[in-house]
Amino acid sequence: MTSPRERMVISAALLIRERGAHPTAIADVLAHSGAPRGSAYHYFPGGRTQLLCEAVDYAGEFIADRLAQASTTVEALDGLFDGYRKQLRDSDFRAGCPVVAVTVEAGDPDKPEQSAAVIERAAAAFARWHDLLAQRLIADGLAQPAATALAMLVLTSFEGAIVVARASRDLAALDLVQEQLRELIRSHTSPAARKRAPR
Q1: What DSSP line would sit under 68-121, residue for residue?
Q2: Domain 55-196's class?
Q3: Rounded (5°) CA angle 76-80-84
Q4: Which sign, positive or negative, has the C-alpha torsion 4, 6, 105, 17?
Q5: First vs last C-alpha separation in the chain
Q6: What's the pTM?
Q7: How far apart are CA 37 and CA 123, in angstroms?
Q8: Do 9 and 51 contact (CB within 8 A), yes or no?
Q9: Domain named Transcriptional regulator LmrA/YxaF-like C-terminal: which ranges (predicted)?
């Protein structure tokens, strides 16, 4: 059973992924989570900025857990794409990545201290996902420099495909990028590719 505080963090992440960060008010989070009125500043004395930061942390952990549980890079890749394919269908193409949402919206020049805190959390989430992908590629036999580069390509292609799919209201971008990345990963982690690769 989740606590009211946990429900608020999860609700914030869910609302941000569909609406974006700016349109998601604390009142919306309270209504969505069913948390008692007046509880927001009890649980989040740092206000909306703290709630946004913790929502980003929650989203970051959610994806990190999925990546960590995969036994191969291709399995991790398929889990990411298949999960977002379902989310996009179920939400009528509204559900994007909450970490991307706060990143692109956190540039308010009038509130640099708020923007900096949220961007820092988003950067940490992206870095964690990148590191997990790179570790998975290394475990699959890729040398560290190549694994680091390929992990960044996978991460940025995945996030870009979600944005294009939402804008076009079509899953074709996800399908195409997933298949291309699967082929690329397999070509780099096959036994023949590992023999050719410099160490």
Answers
A1: HH-SSHHHHHHHHHHHHHHHHHHTTT----HHHHHHHH---TT-HHHHHHHHHH
A2: mainly alpha
A3: 165
A4: negative
A5: 49
A6: 0.89
A7: 32
A8: yes
A9: 74-180
Burial group, residue 137, by CB count within 10 angstroms (0-12, 13-18, 19+): buried
What are the respective helix, strand and coil percentages of the chain, to the nearest 5? 75, 0, 25
Distance CA(28)–CA(178), nearest Å, equals 34
- Identity at 186, one-letter amino acid code: R
Separation between Cα atoms, residue 167 and residue 98, nearest integer Å: 16
Please report how many Cα atoms fall inside a 13 Å half-sphere around the Cα of residue 88, on the Cβ side. Answer: 25
Summarised one tens digit per residue, pLDDT across range 140-174 is 999 999 999 999 999 999 999 999 999 999 999 99
Token output for 84: 């977002």
